[in-house]
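Lecture notes, unit on binding sites. The following record was shown on slide 14. It pairs a sequence with flavin-adenine dinucleotide.
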Amino acid sequence: MVATQLDTAAIKTFGATLRGSVVTPGDPMYDETRQVWNAMIDRKPGLIARCSNAGDVVSAVNFARTHGLDVAIRGGGHNIAGNAVCDGGLMIDLSPMKAVHVDASARRATVEPGCTLGDFDAAAQAHALATPLGINSTTGVAGLTLGGGFGWLSRKHGMTVDNLISADVVTAEGKVVRASATESPDLFWGLRGGGGNFGVVTSFEFQLHPVGPNVLSGLIVFPFDQAKSVLTQFARFTEKMPDDLNVWMVTRKAPPLPFLPAEVHGKEIVALALCYAGDPKEGEKLIEPLRSFGTPYGEHVGVQPYTAWQQAFDPLLTPGARNYWKSHNFAQLSESALDAIIEYAGKLPSPLCEIFIGTIGGQTTRVAPDAMAYSSRDAKYVMNVHGRWETAAEDERCMAWAREFFAKSKPFASGGAYINFLTEDEAERIASAYGPTYKRLVEVKTKYDPANLFHMNQNIKPKA
Ligand SMILES: Cc1cc2nc3c(=O)[nH]c(=O)nc-3n(C[C@H](O)[C@H](O)[C@H](O)COP(=O)(O)OP(=O)(O)OC[C@H]3O[C@@H](n4cnc5c(N)ncnc54)[C@H](O)[C@@H]3O)c2cc1C
């Protein structure tokens, strides 16, 4: 059933049960509320429930189930496949739920599902604490966590899911369940990497670690004609670096960064982005070799607040552009893989496209692959072919570039994939992306959501 076929009295009664509000097509807020980060997604839900608390979420889940509506769950709205929004059904919009409570002495935080990374980082950093999250402050904590989550701190403190202590979940039946190592442990296992398949999380509890509040971090930018030397040394260096240090690689056309000479703007570059999570003085010594990987165009490296570094890439990845991603995991970066990167970075189809290598490893690899749903413990690098452009006329060209490079680099990848980077058209990759834990995920899905109410996600189909 589509929500627009419901009678207005049913919608009115539903709205009256909520502390938050209901938004329908034609309401002034409708278009703004249904919009997600990726402008290629333009879906029109029949009804949007803007939830204020867990009670609203229970009412929304019950309403959707009773009326046979499709359900989409929106946290930060950054999912590339646009799973936060559905056509015709009910969008459960959690973005108004933004409370963060930090218990500094216990080093724990409870975080509501509408929080962005920026909301969480700011609250935790007031106490010089943090947990590993992604690298753009506008991303939602909820979707990122449920798919695994990684960023600058992951080599030292693991994946985001490695730091999840418990979660409150509204199940498909409309029950509120606490999931932790000791309460509904099967659900807790599935939530840590199984995406939004099992219910709506209304609260996350995380372990925090001392971080900063100032960290050594920044960018070193090299000319593209030095790519082979820079990438080869990057691959060797990152295999041996200590867990406190993280270095990512991105190759793209240079944005107008003030520390680069004007004539470099718009030219292909290779940039190393780094963050040292320990004493900045130690970090200075460790990062010195990076500068000799080539002859840099320029650099912007220094000690800055961790929260500032977490926002450093936000201007490059604002909402509203068209985006198409392809991603592989790598256990190591072979020469052939690097050659493929260089070949395709040499023919970027739009000035906004980029190829990046996010480095993980360290603590992310020291957890058993079956300890939780996220199983890619052999992945030391996550590559994202980031197709990004402005107009629909560029769609075919940019997507073809991303797909071609994806195929070319596949033989060097380790298998598995990061489910949070899968696009709309990758349904056939879902089981292999979850990898060895998929079979158990089907069991957990069948137990908690046998009718597949929650299917707008990297979907795990329950048993018939
Ligand atoms: C600019 C940008 C940068 C990124 N950088 C990183 C990075 O550095 N590291 C990284 O790990 N990932 C990164 N990602 C990927 C990111 O993890 C995913 O896009 C993730 O889905 C974002 O979560 P969200 O809450 O914003 O998304 P949404 O689109 O709101 O949600 C995505 C899906 O998660 C599920 N979901 C969301 N909230 C809930 C909930 N409360 N309960 C149950 N299910 C829920 C639903 O299935 C939903 O469809 C980045 C994405 C973008 C766009």
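Take-home: The chain has 14 helices and 18 strands.
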